[in-house]
Amino acid sequence: xxxxxxLSGGYGGKEIVKAISFDVAKGEILGILGPNGSGKSTLLxxxxxxxxxxxxxxxxxxxxxxxxxxxxxxRKVAVLPQLHAHAFSHSVRETIELGRYPHQSGLFSxxxxxxxxxxxxxxxxxAVTRYEQQPIELLSGGEQQRVFVAQAIAQQAPIxxxxxxxxxxxxxxxxxxxxxxxxxxxxxxxxxxxxxHDINLAALYCDRLLLMEDGGVAKIGxxxxxxxxxxxxxxxxxxxxxxxxxxxxxxxxxxxxxHKEDERDAIITQKNFKVSGExxxxxxxxxxxxxxxxxxxxGFGWYQxxxxxxxxxxxxxxxxxxxxxxxxxxxxxxxxTTVGMMTAAFTENVAIQTVKADFGTVxxxxxxxxxxxxxxxxxxxxxDDDVVGTVNTWIIVNGHLSDEAFIQAIVTATEAKAKAFQxxxxxxxxxxxxxxxxxxxxxxxxxxQQGENLPYAGLITPLGKSIxxxxxxxxxxxxxxxxxxxxxxxxx
Length: 492
Hints:
CATH topology of the largest domain: Rossmann fold
CATH architecture of the largest domain: 3-Layer(aba) Sandwich
Number of domains: 2
Distance between the termini: 85 Å
């Protein structure tokens, strides 16, 4: 274990690091964060003994570092500094071999099998083996960085101190390097302390974070406790948003710019819709923040084109996503900016309504095909079938929605749709009870993220009431158009 007790120090009598205390256990990675000039690198130099502290101590395994000889300290601690000066040329292999110096003894030390194994493993894990015989000064900055990391790994010290180890590295080598360090920490119980500039990398790979401000500790703890909007905004003086990583249970930061789109360009009206017998298309002038259960580009994202296309009752593609992708490409729609869904309803019968409220407007668009209407309470008794029905519901909000409001909007719309099914007495043809939806329904909520902030979309809010009214009325209208079409077809 490495322990820092009330550590202070700096340069020329100026105290840069002020009364910092923490400890790091075996197998743990502690990331040090902070704005430029906050004392991150100075703290690392105090821990390594390069700088003498004005107060406090650093202990390794309960023993002050001042009691270790340089070679004994090097057997305990490997250090990767931020900058490297080359007094003379070494090959990559020779540079990495220097990491074995602390393990040599006597005047005529011999190279052991253990030394060779450590160097080979270090080169392989940092992907520098192919540069083995090249002079290090001929490598790029990123390649040199990996060589010096390999040197520190070859040292095989139980404590590894790193000052911005991902400097000069592209994202692939950042990932490879930090994955390797994470693996070493887990499998060999390596204690790692690393300075980071990149908050997201630190949050993703570290067990705990120490956030510095003006030489002191602003916050220390697990990433979820440290990487919080108000904390980062205050310490860095930058506008950020935090959200969970898409795959790992770690927070990530998004930088917020001060630039805003022209709100006049962002506003959506019914004029943005194009309706035909083949599809309903909404083209926005700027991307809308979107949450949907669409076939193409489902989930959260920013999209500018929205398509609800008609397919016949017998539609049965083996790979629906692939078929939809082909359709979009054939019709010259951008795959990256388009949300695509499909319906067995006749798209020219789409019901579109603008609902006005004090905050702005909500536009609702609903297509209703009833070929596979189901009662949610009876669905467990049904056999799987491929009948296409589909009530597709679009909710377009001219306003700024929170993530919570997106989800609440879906809940509110689903309740309104079920009420419309009840009003129109749409029945489950198998259970012979009132249906609540069709088995292949899809929904989309999109917002301009301009104008008034709308944090909630429940039924007690103006936004929720607007969605409820619009979805209910449009669903009723779309169902009635579908019923009339069936009656007309039966007469013919």
